Amino acid sequence: MSSLTLDAADEIVAAALKRAQALGKAVSVAVVDAGGFVVSVRRCDGARPLTPDIARAKAYTAAVMQRPGKMLKKWQESQPVFFAQLSQLPGAALPIMATEGSVTIKKDGEIIGGLGIAGGTADEDQRVADEVLESLGYELEFAAWGVAGTRAGDHGKTRSAEPAGQARSADGPEQARSEDSPEHARNADSPEKARNAENTEKGA
User: Fold this and answer.
1) What percentage of the chain exceeds 70 in pLDDT?
2) Which helix (H) or strand (E) element contains residue 133?
3) Distance between CA 137 and CA 133 in Å, rounded?
4) Cβ contacts of residue 5 below 8 Å, gap of 6+?
5) Is the dihedral of CA 126, 132, 135, 138 positive or negative?
6) Secondary structure percentages of the chain, helix, strand, coil, to 5
7) pLDDT digit string (tens) for 3-48?
8) 4-15, pLDDT tens digit by residue?
9) Residue 120: which of 32, 17, 36, 33 has the closest Cα?
């Protein structure tokens, strides 16, 4: 069974601060274990005072919900009351934040913690988290909610993986041309019209 050690957490935090600095962003970084308990938190020079708490909430969300925050956004939008109640549960240490910069830490197929980045834009926080975890060998693929065995983002891949010939026959220009052709128009006529046309030709 994998676990998130202090050394591993500090490595993630240091790499995230370095990556954010390269982007010119002053951020706070938090790493928690699988239960949402803080392992390491750091706020770089110039980061806003509230960013450590935001980073902790993002990391907590990614760990206890077992999905990155951005994967929870549609769920939260469809059930805002439910998500508000989650943050008020007696055992909830921090608010649940379905947003970017909140990434679940997974290794060897096992969820071992959460990473939270706060201080940049939503896209920048997410970019730093994804790039750092990927560079350190952590996994970034998670099953989509309610779809067994389907990874997040695979729905688009399924469509693009269709055989080219099949895709063209379904909605390609060949079909459009054949439907507009005179042959198609004659074939679409009733059998009675076809017989009348044949008799006319014989009479001629």
Assistant:
1) 70
2) helix 122-135
3) 6
4) none
5) negative
6) 50, 15, 35
7) 899 999 999 999 999 999 999 999 999 999 999 999 999 999 999 9
8) 999 999 999 999
9) 17
Report yes or no: 55 and 79 within 8 Å, Cβ to Cβ. Answer: no
Query: Where is 44: in which H helix or E strand?
Result: none
Query: Distance between CA atoms of 38 and 31, rounded to whole angstroms?
Result: 6
Q: How far apart are CA 42 and CA 28, in angstroms?
A: 6
Residues recorded for the chain: 204
Task: Determine the residue type at 131.
Answer: E
Which two structure tokens, joined as six digits, stand for 175?
């079909």
- Token pair of 37 as six digits: 């308990």
Helix axis angle for 122-135 and 6-22, nearest 10°, is 130
Q: Find the range with the poorest average confidence among 80-89, 181-190, 192-201.
A: 181-190
How many C-beta atoms lie closer than 10 Å to residue 131's C-beta?
Answer: 14
3-class DSSP assignment, residue 129: helix
Question: What is the DSSP code (8-state) at residue 71?
Answer: G
| Closest to 58 measured CA to CA, from 146, 151, 122, 152 | 122
From CA 100, how far away is CA 123, in angstroms rounded?
Answer: 7
Q: Which two tokens stand for residue 187?
A: 């074939």
